[in-house]
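We store sequence, tokenised fold; for instance:
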Amino acid sequence: MKTDIHAMIENKIKQIRKFDETASARAQRHSDNLTKPPGSLGKLESIAAQLAGIHGDLWPQLDKRAVVVMAADHGVCDEGVSAFPQEVTAQMVLNFLSGGAAVNVLAAQAGADVFCVDIGVKTDVDHPDVCSRKVVYGTANMVKGAAMSLDQTKQAIAAGIAVAEELVGKGYRLFATGEMGIGNTTASAAIASVLLGLPPEQTVGRGTGIDDSGWLRKVEIVKRAIEVNAPAADQPVETLAKVGGAEIAGLAGVIIGAAANGCPVVVDGYISSVAALVAAKISDRVKPYLFGSHLSQEQGHKRVLEALELEPMVQLDMRLGEGTGAVLCFHFLDAALKLMQEMATFESAGISKE
């Protein structure tokens, strides 16, 4: 079973098509021939060119889009790292499923569907619409040892791949990553510190809104977790197992699965970006399929985006997670494609370029 999971992940990585530079260049030439000064639409032009390179032609149909919200609990909450109790994870999952969360509102506005996946919530979620892919009932406390076993971590990655594959099978062609898990900014900071070689003082943020003393305690907890588990920067899956979370592993799998099926992924905030970093460390073949959405208030987010070579589309001082920033940026992808498809060229408009 363990070998089968490893082989499946490796096979999915091999299926990721190389970015089509020719198609991307064609898209840029088309953009340059539209009735505007070259480059005057800024990032919208580069978004269109990237989408063409992913798709391999002009222009992809992205009408059916999914926001995948992975949910899991974290044993490190025992150390008092969050301003909210752990029970909020399961309560928020029910809120997503009833349509009452911020991501539900923004997804509806963007014409996207929200899929909430229980991959590691501490309790069973009783709702007919939950996507149950339970790998663990919350992680162990990473201050006292590994958060997950290596096998559990690979199962979570595989579960994320399977979710992406199922949605592709239903016609979804554009993905946003979202998450829910009290304590997951602590796990994300630990992963970022290890994979980027940064001290926790530069990766730990305020999360749900802790005060100065809470932040200092959180920094020390991340330091202790790294010392206890001794994760290595060149071992992303092992790092994920030692100081990560099931939802982070699941999102890494979603990214791999979406890329293997030629689908772009808009990455949300800090936790989602750390999941993207893990996926990119597993295989840099996923990187051309990623779009940065926003720059969150979590201080480590900028460093993770820089490592991924992603530029955020907006900075709105958001730090909610859930996929809110990512789904909000679906509108920019729509705008980029609409401009390329509907603007007149100099030739069709009879306008001189000289």
Summary: The radius of gyration is 20 Å. Residues 150-169 form the longest helix (20 residues).
